Amino acid sequence: MSIHATAFDALPIQVWTARPDGTLDYVNPAVTDYFCVTAASVLAHGWKNLCHPHDLIEAVQRWASALQTGEPYEVEFRLLRGADRQYRWHVARAFPVRDGSGTVTGWVGTNTDVDFIKRAQEQGQATAARAQMARERFRLLLSQAPVAITVTEGPEHRVELSNWRARQIVGGRNVEGLTLAEAFPHLAGHESMKRLDQAYRTGERLEDREVAFELDRDGDGVLEPCWFDTTVEPLRDAGGAVSGLMVVSVELTATVLARREVERLLAERAAVLENLPDGVIITDAAGRITFVNRRAEALHGCALLDVPPEHYAEAYSLYTESGEPHPFDELPLARAILRDEVVTGGRWRIRRSDGSEVLAQGDAQPLWSADGHKIGAVVVVREVTP
């Protein structure tokens, strides 16, 4: 994962990646800036030092479950913002990245600050029972909120309020006074519109994650793909009947596109490396094996991932040319990752599980990011005739 993690450096959202066992191996600058900590501190301790003690147990349990099942991870918890040392609610999500065989090779995750949504929801629930003065204050609060908020009235969902962020999403257009069907005719029949009808009809609060839309952002008829987290909060009149809806939206388009770009890069890398005539094995910054191409698997008779340097020789049955157990720290790949050496022409013997042996020769070197950080190592292996 870390080989392409620098693609996230310029993103304004909090992005992190982890190895298959869940160990963090990258956080982008948005993480370190938000929490006022170093990347090394987060990688060493994870989120435990930043998570509210009351939320930690559930977060750890859900992460452990995701690692075991390979299903996407999602949890809400409070994290300690560095600037004011205040705990703020976040939604953390992580998605597994898989190789061609379906094996999880890492995780890409994001943390999204949703503290304002929490407070807006609480405010919205209280507002329904307040006087008109409180309702106007609530309107002012929503109009200035940094997340997209739309308030509708009636079963036809006529827009009563569309705050600055909601207008920004659609190119600055003011849709107040229009029904949602009039403002966005291309969304007729979309599942999101059916969900609004459901919330109005039942009075249930609804939450939908990573909803895909196509929006005419500029009013020119050109539809652009986008993704949102949405919360629909029914608003009630003095008698308790549902009179409207508050729709809170957090745009995830940058997150989704970044994740897809990483998946594309990984797929491109795998396609190139899988078709090389030589075997290729790649590790992460800690030396754990993250990739083995088909030729390397054929040479060794196996393709074991997440193997640390001290177990290279044992896991892959590697011996010296004379047939003695190979010291792990003298293997070319181990020398590259542990001592930053560039190794050429290294030789060793492979004993495969079927009893056959191969004399191998390989070149290894460490891998460096653009800013000079070691992000892994690679060895290129070929069979040689004794």
Count of all domains: 3
CATH class of the largest domain: Alpha Beta
Shape: elongated
Query: Which CATH architecture of the largest domain?
Result: 2-Layer Sandwich
Rounded to an integer in angstroms, the radius of gyration calculated over CA atoms is 26 Å
Largest sheet: 6 strands, antiparallel
Task: List the strand order in the largest sheet.
Answer: 12-11-16-15-14-13
SS summary, helix count: 12
The count of β-strands is 16
The helix content, as a percent range, equals 25-40%
| Assembly state | single chain
- Tell me the name of the CATH homologous superfamily of the largest domain: PAS domain
Describe the structure.
- This protein is an alpha+beta fold.
- The chain has three domains: 2-113, Beta-Lactamase (2-Layer Sandwich); 116-254, 2-Layer Sandwich (Beta-Lactamase); 277-383, Beta-Lactamase (2-Layer Sandwich), CATH 3.30.450.
- 31% of the residues lie in helices and 33% in strands.
- It contains twelve helices and 16 strands.
- The protein has helices at 29-35, 39-45, 53-69, 115-127, 132-143, 164-169, 180-183, 191-202, 253-274, 294-300, 312-316, 332-339; strands spanning 14-18, 24-27, 73-81, 86-98, 104-113, 148-153, 158-162, 206-215, 224-236, 242-251, 279-283, 289-292, 318-319, 343-351, 357-368, 374-383.
